[in-house]
Amino acid sequence: MPGIFISYRREDTAGHAGRIFDRLREKFGLDKVFMDVAGIEPGVDFVEAIDRAVGSCDVLLVIIGKKWLTCTDASGKKRLDDPKDFIRLETATALRRDIRVIPVLVQDAAMPGEGDLPDDLKKLARRQATEINDTHWDTDTGQLVETLTKLLHGERKPAQSGAGGLVHDPATPVKKPETPRPAPSGIGKNKLTLIISAIMALAVALGGLLYFIPSNKDVAVPELIGISLDEAVARLERERLRPGMVRHMPSERPAGTVIEQDPGPGSRLAPESPVNLVLAESQPDRDRTQPSGEEVRPPDLVLATVPRVEGQMLEQAHRLLERAGLKAAKPVRKETRDAPEGTVIEQSPRAGAKLAQGERVELVVAASPAEPEAEMVRIPDVTKREVREAIALLKEAGLNAKPRMEREETTRTEDGTVLKQSLRPGSRVRPDEVITLVIAVQPRDREAAGVITLPDFTGSPLPKVEAFIKENGLVLGPVKEKETTEQRAGTVVAQRPPAGTRMEKGGKVTLMVAVSGGEQAVLPAPEQAWPEDGRAFDNYPRNLAVRWKPVQGAASYAVELDCLHCCESGKWCSDLGRPWKVAREIPAASTTGYKFVFAGAQPGRWRVWAVDKGGHEGEKSPWRTFRFTK
Fold it and tell me: Fewer beta carbons under 10 A from the terminal one: N or C of the chain?
């Protein structure tokens, strides 16, 4: 069991705990530092597992950040109030067993008082804490390392000698001189020599036997020769090992396969130990020579591919870089609310770049802003909305700065629709932040040309589709037939171009129509029960439950929800071939209703149909409209 146990809460100090773990691992070794109670097998009492893990350590470090006291679970209850909370169990176990507990304050956090803690953690408030500041990270962690070194390796200093004499250490008991005994002689001396020799031989034999008995903690190195690097990494991770230095050498074997490994297969290592690999690369052209006649040799520089670490916690980013043979430079902290604290938000060079092995990658890590949460506003998603509606939504969210407008020519959407926005939806910014909106405009040379957006023709009768094509100036191409019993004869089963395609007048549309259909009985449309057509609601959040009467023979139901203005201003999404939402496989045996949350304060509509055991869809009910007023 390692000598140092690091207790931390992921929602609070994952990044700081990872950096402290790396620093202590460099000083004391991986087998002396333990981070997390992980890998508890199903069926094992986790309280007993924590009790064994923490109870066997020498020092427990409790990493305390700003949210250590206030973190809550999904129900809103403080985690420290839960007797089964891992952090509470780890700390309480160490306090109960009189293990040295050191509170480590990060993020400028304050030490909790006894009144803030449950009964089994009140002793923690009386433990002397150490503070680690981000601006003095190396100095503060150095002091922590020095303290732990004294605790773990506190060897007694040798007695100092004076003028030719020894100064007695008061902590060392005075040993009385023994009266010398006469040395054995003759036969007795020979017997004593034989006994001592036998004891020494037995000790050597037992020592050799113990040497070859593997430790239960060690793991065997798997066979990696002849497989790819990705497969080798996967095998090592399964055995709780990790790849070390990766080099390339010319070889006759396929490029990228493992040709050497150190240590070899069957060797036993401590968990998380590195295994160095040599990969095959293409054999250089031996016939190619320099002008001087010397053979062209591949460069000695071994390059590594920079992995993508953006979006990873800092600790995981360090591991990914180490696997690639690279290192991480000292991270730069950047205040943001777009990512959890301790997450890598920028890297340089970018993923995929080539660096010499051992070089450093610059990282920028997210830090919580100092300003209060109440001063920030959350940016809504205003794309695909008419510009006036978008501006109204931004003002409603609390953004008081006037938006900056840019225009982009396109035929894919209507004029005045927002195509892009500069501030990411869901991000939190100051109220005076300026947002840029990119607005769609039709190209000048195509303003006069009629452009039609193809709806979804599938399931519609062929005469109805033909009429639409003719009315909108399109050309009907060859109509192909497909034998099927899944749709009724004479209905469209496929189309080209697909639904949603924008076409100019004169464009050709090809259809495939079902024949020999209608073998099975078509289920009738369900009778809609609630809400009545045109009903308005003023509740917020915009929760709504629609209901219908059951249909004999139905195995399940499907509900289609539609939204006006959501896909294009002034149009229903379903009419454009892009249904807003379709809920399928609603069990007929358990319910004849469906609950959902609607998009906004604009008109909506819904319809429902039954599906039999064979998966055949019945007739669809007519649309019923509704709207929310706020």
Answer: C
Q: Which residue has the higher pLDDT, 552 or 126?
A: 126
HSE-CB of 576 using CA atoms within 13 angstroms: 22
CA neighbours closer than 13 Å in the CB half-sphere of residue 60: 30
Distances (CA, A) of 610 to 30, 31, 294, 419: 61, 62, 80, 37
Burial of 500: CB neighbours in 10 Å, binned 0-12, 13-18, 19+: middle
Report whether 355 contacts 361 (CB < 8 A). yes
Coil/strand/helix, residue 195: helix
pLDDT (tens digit per residue) in 258-308: 888 888 888 888 887 888 888 887 654 444 444 444 444 444 456 788 999
User: What residue has token string 């499907």?
Assistant: 558
Q: Can 220-283+302-367 and 528-628 be said to share one CATH topology? A: no
373-446: CATH topology is Trypsin Inhibitor V; Chain A (3.30.10)
Q: What is the 3-state secondary structure (H, E, C) of 201-259?
A: HHHHHHHHHHHHCCCCCCEECCCCCCCEHHHHHHHHHHCCCEEEEEEEEECCCCCCEEE
pTM value surpassing 0.70: no
| Residue 629 near residue 601, CB atoms below 8 Å | yes
Judge whether 257 and 279 are in contact, CB under 8 Å.
yes
**Side chain identity at residue 364, one-letter code:** V
14 is written with which tokens? 């994952």
Q: Which of 2.60.120.1440, 3.30.10.20, 2.60.40.10, 3.40.50.300 is the CATH number of 451-515? A: 3.30.10.20
The H or E element containing residue 504 is strand 502-504
Collapsed DSSP state (helix, strand, coil) of residue 318: helix
Return the CATH superfamily for domain 528-628. Immunoglobulins (2.60.40.10)
Indicate the helix (H) or strand (E) that contains 337.
none
Give per-residue pLDDT as tens, 387-427: 989 999 999 999 988 899 998 888 777 778 999 999 988 88
Length of the chain: 630
Give the largest CA-CA distance in the chain.
Answer: 128
**Type of residue at 462:** L
Q: Domain spans of the chain?
A: 4-152, 220-283+302-367, 373-446, 451-515, 528-628
Enter the CATH code of domain 4-152. 3.40.50.10140
Instruction: For 523, list phi and psi in degrees, rounded to 5.
Output: -70, 140
3-state SS string for 35-49: ECCCCCCCCCCHHHH
Cα gap 263→108, rounded to integer Å = 44
CB-hemisphere CA count at 13 Å for 368? 18
497 preceded by a cis bond (ω within 30 of 0): yes
Q: Is the peptide bond before 349 cis (omega within 30 degrees of 0)?
A: yes
DSSP state at residue 162: -
Instruction: Note whether 205 and 239 are within 8 A (CB).
Output: no
Residue among 103, 5, 10, 15 nearest 50 (CA)? 5
CA gap 460, 474 in Å, rounded: 17
Buried b (16+ CB within 10 A) or exposed e, 23-35: bbbebbebebbbb
What CATH number labels 220-283+302-367?
3.30.10.20
Q: Tokens standing for 152?
A: 């773990």
